[in-house]
């Protein structure tokens, strides 16, 4: 299939095998056939964006039972409060209008709503839109596309800011989104979006950033090229530490001068050969090696009679569990704070997801840390586990037990 962003030819560099939908947590009595896709990553020769080779069924992924909740991490909540303050500080129009695509439970827009600023959240997950409405955020359960953009502009007027976090990379029909942005954005408006960064994935070997919902893995180079195809320019870029390393991109179409950070990062990506096949093939080799070493560590814990549990049933963990062939025999349980995931089974690998034990005595000997992107928050919270001899298995930035 040609590149979904620009139509040019692509080349495959990574095969992560058969994978389930990463957020399809099954009830233990569900015997229906599970949906599988073949997870392969390709790079485009034209715009250089990394993407999945095969189409993903977006309606099956983002729906009224979508279990991911932005506010499940304290760090992410404060990240989005700070983001909202930044967006508000940049608003110059007399009666500004802010749109968030993929507004989830309204964590970011809650701050915008508190300031009395006109806003709208658009998200296909009706359950999360309900939670946003409950916190007085104006939101609608819809897909963002050219039709929605037209309707929103008719009703509210042009948007001064369109913001999206961990959403643009979810939408295979990126040209459709850009057509919507062309309609919705005020002439001097900005589009700000943040997503996992290809440069960090290569640097950290974080192959679990590749799963069904992460259709694209962007970089400064690829976003600049894709934006240009739609009459936008990449005018700023900022590295974020959240979610395992992200870039925040700012696009505009009013001819403003890009910040020096844009040229600097594109030059760095060129020097590091971020989009070139030998670099991507080296990453693929590292991924295979890490799978073998992670399995060795888990086998070692089992042989030594030490109990192991997964820490957080993240969407990313689906890639790790299914690619590495880890099932209940190596990892009998994964603990997670999300009520919608508890009492269910991890997708594909069918490991029971349970709430964290109340009592430290019921903790395992070793935790496999799936939420490595929240490591700081989690390690601080779980200091007592380490104090009484508990150990962590990590696989990013490398396989490590300790
Ligand atoms: P993600 O933000 O990497 O997708 O992962 C979020 C998942 O991790 C979500 O299901 C909640 C879970 N989680 C915990 O169970 N405990 C924690 O301390 C954190 C930060 C997340």
UniProtKB/TrEMBL annotation:
Spell out the SUPFAM superfamilies in the cross-references.
S-adenosyl-L-methionine-dependent methyltransferases (SSF53335)
Q: What UniProt keywords are attached to this protein's entry? A: Methyltransferase, Transferase
Q: Which GO terms describe its molecular function?
A: methyltransferase activity
Query: Where do the C-methyltransferase domain residues begin and end?
Result: 242-397
Gene3D superfamilies reported in the protein's UniProt record = 6.10.250.3100, Methyltransferase, zinc-binding domain, NAD(P)-binding Rossmann-like Domain, Vaccinia Virus protein VP39
The record's section on InterPro entries has: Methyltransf_Zn-bd_dom_put, Methyltransf_Zn-bd_dom_put_sf, MeTrfase_14, SAM-dependent_MTases_sf
Which residues are in the Methyltransferase putative zinc binding domain?
3-62
**A GO BP entry:** methylation
For this protein, the record's Pfam families field holds: Methyltransf_13, Methyltransf_14, Methyltransf_23
Q: Spell out the PANTHER family in the cross-references.
A: BLL5978 PROTEIN, TRANS-ACONITATE 2-METHYLTRANSFERASE-RELATED
Name under which the protein is recorded: Class I SAM-dependent methyltransferase
Give the originating organism. Micromonospora craniellae
């Amino acid at each position: 299939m040609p590149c979904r962003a620009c139509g040019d030819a692509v080349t495959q560099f990574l095969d992560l095998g058969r994978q389930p939908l990463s957020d399809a947590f099954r009830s233990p009595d569900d015997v229906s056939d599970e949906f599988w896709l073949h997870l392969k990553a390709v790079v485009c020769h034209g715009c250089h964006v990394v993407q999945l080779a095969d189409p993903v069924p977006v309606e099956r992924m983002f729906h009224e039972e979508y279990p991911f909740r932005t506010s499940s991490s304290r760090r992410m909540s404060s990240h989005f409060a700070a983001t909202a303050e930044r967006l508000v500080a940049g608003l110059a129009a007399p009666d500004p209008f802010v749109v968030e695509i993929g507004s989830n439970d309204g964590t970011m827009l809650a701050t915008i709503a508190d300031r009395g600023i006109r806003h709208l959240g658009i998200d296909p997950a009706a359950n999360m839109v309900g939670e946003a409405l409950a916190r007085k955020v104006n939101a609608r359960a819809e897909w963002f596309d050219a039709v929605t953009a037209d309707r929103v502009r008719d009703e509210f007027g042009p948007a001064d800011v369109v913001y999206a976090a961990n959403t643009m990379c979810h939408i295979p029909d990126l040209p459709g989104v850009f057509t919507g942005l062309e309609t919705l954005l005020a002439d001097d408006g900005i589009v700000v979006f943040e997503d996992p960064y290809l440069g960090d994935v290569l640097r950290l070997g974080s192959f679990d950033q590749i799963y069904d919902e992460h259709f694209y893995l962007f970089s400064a180079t690829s976003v600049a090229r894709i934006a240009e195809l739609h009459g936008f320019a990449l005018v700023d870029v900022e590295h974020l530490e959240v979610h395992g390393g992200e870039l925040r991109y700012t696009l505009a179409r009013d001819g403003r001068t890009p910040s020096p950070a844009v040229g600097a990062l594109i030059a760095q990506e060129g020097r590091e050969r971020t989009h070139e096949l030998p670099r991507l093939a080296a990453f693929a080799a590292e991924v295979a090696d890490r799978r073998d070493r992670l399995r060795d560590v888990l086998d070692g814990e089992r042989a030594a009679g030490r109990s192991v549990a997964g820490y957080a049933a993240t969407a990313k963990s689906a890639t790790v569990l299914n690619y590495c062939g880890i099932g209940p025999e190596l990892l009998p349980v994964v603990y997670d704070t999300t009520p919608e995931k508890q009492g269910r089974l991890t997708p594909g690998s069918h490991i029971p997801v349970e709430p964290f034990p109340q009592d430290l005595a019921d903790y395992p000997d070793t935790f496999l840390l799936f939420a490595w992107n929240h490591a700081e928050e989690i390690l601080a919270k779980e200091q007592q586990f380490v104090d009484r001899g508990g150990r962590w298995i990590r696989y990013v930035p490398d396989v490590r037990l300790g």
